[in-house]
Design goal:
Elements: E1 31-37, E2 44-50, H1 51-105, H2 115-119
Antiparallel strand pairs: 1-2
Length: 120
């Protein structure tokens, strides 16, 4: 995940939905606490989040990843097509050379004898 996900997104008292009851519990309908594992640390990090903001940030991250995967896929497809064209060219060249070889070897043979029949 990207670094911005470790920052709290809850605005606390500045949010119009923010409310705390008499037992000091947050009653904001958008408030969630998320738990993240920090790379290089054994203890998880608890972050106060605003659900719509966090979901939007995660959606943006997944969208960026999907775009990156699509670009990689298109790059690999283009490389595959180039290799396929090269292999096809090689086979065409081999076919031409075989035909030339067969033509040259069959000059002193009757017209109805093929190279495979000559090799048998």
């Amino acid at each position: 995940m990207i670094k911005r996900e470790l920052e709290p997104t809850c605005m606390g008292d500045q949010c119009p939905f923010w409310a705390v009851d008499k037992n000091d519990r947050v009653t904001c309908p958008l408030f969630i606490q998320t738990i993240w594992s920090v790379k290089g640390s054994n203890s998880p990090k608890v972050i106060n989040d605003c659900a719509p903001k966090r979901n939007t940030m995660l959606l943006m991250d997944y969208s960026e990843r999907a775009i990156g995967i699509q670009q990689d896929y298109e790059f690999q497809r283009d490389k595959y097509e180039k290799v396929l064209v090269k292999v096809s060219d090689v086979f065409e060249e081999m076919k031409k050379r075989n035909e030339m070889l067969e033509k040259n070897l069959c000059l002193d043979q009757p017209d109805n004898v093929t190279l495979t029949e000559m090799l048998e």
